[in-house]
Amino acid sequence: MNQKQYPKLALYIDGQWLPQASGGEIPVINPADEAPLALLPLAGASELDLALAAAEKGYAVWKKTAALERQKIISRAMQLVRERAPGIACALTLEQGKPYPEALREVLLSTEIIDFLAEEGKRLYSRGVPPRSANILSQVVSRQPVGPVAAFTPWNFPANLPARKLGGALSAGCSIIIKPAEETPASCLEFVRAFHDAGLPPGVLNMVCGRPAEVSAHLIAAPAIRKVSFTGSVAVGRQLGLLAAQGIKRYTAELGGHAPVIVCQDADAQQAAKASVAAKYRNGGQVCVSPTRFYVHAAKFAEFRDAFVHGAGTIKVGSGLDEGVAMGPLVHARRLDDMQRLVDDAVACGGKLLCGGRRLGDSGFFYAPTVLAEVPPQAQVMRQEPFGPIAVLQSFDKLDAAIAAANSLPYGLAAYAFTHDLETAHRLGEELEAGMVGINHYGVSQPETPFGGWKESGHGQESGPEGLQGYTDVKFCSIAK
Question: Cα(419)–Cα(421) distance, rounded to whole angstroms?
Answer without folding.
Answer: 6
